[in-house]
Write a structure and sequence with these properties.
Low-confidence stretches: 1-24
Oligomer: single chain
Mean pLDDT: 81
Shape: globular
Largest sheet: 11 strands, mixed
Number of strands: 34
InterPro entries: Secre_tail
Organism: Marinoscillum luteum
Protein name: T9SS type A sorting domain-containing protein
Distance between the termini: 80 Å
């Protein structure tokens, strides 16, 4: 007991010495689970450091959630990822006494100074955590993350980014912005979200950066919580929950920073599109395991391809072994990146059910019927839920071709339209603009 307390004290003193020795430096970090063998878990602690700082990330305390802390010497790997930041990482293994749920955390005393949306940030500790489940009935490969491209934002631009991740098991991931912490269940002081928002379904984050004085490169701090979920016999179980913490540095940039628009979630489709806007020349990187370009290319990286403004890419969806999957897209231009996640589901009923799990909306698909189906273009919609407010008809590539408000949802609606033969998707919404149902519609001659 005395030896363990001495090690904790030494680790604490090392972090205090580092804190008082020089610059504050932590630009972000997260904990990921690399491997689980029985009850032995290998963790990777990843941090982003200011490249100019003489203080190195890694002098904090790693707690395993069972009363133990790391006391072994670690090998720290460090590499430059930009002119501004270095990536620092070390791995540690720990054996737990029994299966169960554990919360592993890492805390270091010196969060970056001068953060705009945290009070006196230099006096606040930096804290990250992962809660995970060890259960012999849930064999699991935990999510792997890439947050390095989230660290820069363009002045007066729109920060449109996505945490890019890979889950080998195809588990559902739910995203949310949360208040950064300085310790276990201890939020940092005076935090505000600065107008940022996140789509919990795709993990796409939007933030109107606003204009800042020339020569001033302010910092903002954000934290993303990622919940890993799996369905088992009709019930959803949380397998892990990770909080990633990162600074965003606002840099001087042309208003022609790269912008991506297109279909970011799609179900039962044959293709989808992506449009690159507001940039004269850039490169595109695609990591979509279920696509090929319509020219037949299946390359996962298009970094050597020069893309000009208003370029539109069409992607052909190929059969996937998973019922749903995530893909990632980035556009690079003059050292700045914008990124998007794409969510794909093989059928629209599952798509709606999964989205409702994420958003907390109770589905009513079983209470909404479309008949006849197939149809020659004249069909009826019958709603028994009493929640239907309006519906949209879209093509499989995501283009809306019709929308109509519902005046009396308790009676059948007759739709008479000049729809071309083919397959369409009808989306049903309630009065709060929540998706409550999806039906596939086949139009024949």
């Amino acid at each position: 007991m005395f030896e363990e307390s001495r090690k904790i004290f030494i680790a604490f003193m090392l972090s205090v010495i580092a804190y008082t020795a020089g610059a504050t430096h932590i630009a972000g970090g997260y904990i990921s689970i690399k491997k689980v063998e029985g009850t032995t878990v290998t963790f990777s602690v990843c941090g982003f450091s200011d490249a100019a700082s003489s203080v190195h990330f890694g002098s904090g305390v790693l707690s395993f959630g069972d009363g133990a802390v790391n006391s072994a010497e670690v090998e720290v790997n460090r590499k430059s990822i930009s002119d501004h930041h270095d990536l620092v990482a070390f791995e540690v293994s720990h054996t737990y006494a029994a299966p169960g749920a554990y919360r592993v955390s890492y805390v270091e005393n010196h969060r970056t100074e001068g953060v705009m949306n945290v009070n006196n940030s230099g006096n606040e500790s930096f804290y990250i955590e992962t809660t995970f489940l060890i259960d012999p009935f849930f064999q699991n490969s935990f999510p792997a993350f890439d947050a390095s491209h989230l660290l820069l934002a363009a002045n007066a631009g729109r920060f449109a980014q996505a945490l890019q991740m890979n889950d080998a098991d195809g588990d559902l991931l739910v995203f949310s912005l949360v208040t950064p912490r300085k310790g276990r269940d201890m939020p940092v002081s005076g935090y505000h979200f600065a107008g940022a928002a996140m789509d919990p379904f795709t993990g796409n984050m939007l933030w109107d950066v606003g204009d800042h004085p020339s020569g001033h490169e302010p910092l903002y701090t954000f934290a993303i919580q990622v919940q890993e979920m799996r369905e088992q016999e009709g019930s959803w179980f949380t397998l892990s929950q990770t909080i990633l913490d990162f600074n965003v540095e606002v840099i001087a940039s042309s208003l022609d920073h790269p912008t991506l628009e297109g279909v970011l979630s799609v179900c039962d489709a044959e293709e989808f599109y992506l449009e690159v806007l507001q940039v004269d020349l850039c490169s595109l990187e695609v990591n979509l395991p279920f696509y090929q370009l319509l020219d037949g290319s299946t390359s996962a990286s298009l970094n050597d391809l020069s893309i000009h403004k208003d370029t539109i890419f069409y992607f052909d969806l190929m059969p996937s072994t998973k019922s749903y999957d995530y893909g990632h897209i980035r556009v690079h231009s003059q050292g700045y990146v914008q990124s998007r996640n794409v969510f794909y589901s093989q059928d629209c009923e599952s798509f709606t059910a999964i989205r409702n799990v994420v958003t907390g909306v109770s589905p009513h698909s079983e209470d909404i019927s479309v008949y006849p189906n197939p149809s020659d273009g004249d069909f009826k919609i019958n709603d028994r839920s009493g929640n239907l407010s309006y519906y949209k008809i879209i093509t499989l590539s995501g283009k809306q071709i019709y929308a109509e408000m519902v005046q009396n949802p308790l009676v059948s609606l007759s739709h008479q339209g000049n729809l071309q033969p083919g397959t369409y998707v009808i989306q049903f919404f309630d009065g709060f603009d929540r998706l409550i149902g999806v039906k596939k519609l086949l139009i024949v001659e």
